[in-house]
Specification:
By secondary structure, the protein is of the alpha/beta class. It is built from three helices and eight strands. Helix 2 (86-102) crosses helix 3 (168-193).
Length: 194
């Protein structure tokens, strides 16, 4: 009898947990083509352009979206998740947006075969990329362009866009805008420095 009441109690607890977590999980992807216009007439980079590696900090290396509560505190949005690994999403979004800005389809993503010759390599280290407690999306990126293994550009860029503290669609749109601005700066810099 005792085991029957324990079983009934466990079942109730389980159904309560399931009911509590029955809210559907929403999945999101970033894009990097917001506000794109035709590139100005400028030299087109000749040769193969390699995109990557792209690194993200460990606090972003999880499926859940991270939202700042204070400068030092974050929350994981359990029901709002990235549809793929965030570093892969960033790489793919830039890989789709950059060729049209560069006027070249000769782009490959990291990692490429060891024997592959890359004329230009774009490396990106994301330092910060989340929506803060004031509803601002902030992207800080340290990035470089190498030409034939020689670093020709090394920059640190900061982008900010108004987002929201509770509307995740708006958050992702703001983060996509920041990523688009990073892509546009990289493309313009590469066209200027090749």
């Amino acid at each position: 009898m005792k085991s029957l009441s324990v079983l009934a109690c466990s079942t109730l607890l389980l159904s309560a947990c399931m009911h509590h977590d029955s809210k559907p999980i929403q999945f999101y992807r970033l894009t990097a083509d917001i506000g794109l216009s035709s590139p100005p007439p400028a030299p087109i980079p000749e040769g193969i352009i390699g995109l990557g590696p792209i690194h993200i900090p460990d606090y972003l290396n999880r499926p859940q979206m991270m939202v700042g509560l204070t400068e030092h505190q974050f929350k994981q949005a359990e029901h709002h998740r990235w549809a793929e690994r965030l570093d892969q999403n960033i790489a793919l979004a830039l890989f789709k947006a950059l060729p049209s800005q560069l006027g070249s389809n000769r782009m490959i993503r990291h990692p490429w075969p060891q024997r592959q010759v890359v004329d230009y390599q774009i490396s990106i280290d994301i330092v910060e990329f989340h929506v803060d407690a004031t509803g601002q999306s902030r992207l800080i990126a340290q990035w470089s362009i190498k030409h034939k293994d020689q670093t020709i550009v090394e920059k640190r860029s900061v982008y900010q866009a108004s987002a929201s503290t509770s509307d995740y669609d708006t958050m992702v749109a703001a983060q996509s805008l920041c990523l688009s601005q990073l892509g546009q700066e990289i493309a313009a810099t590469l066209r200027k420095n090749q």
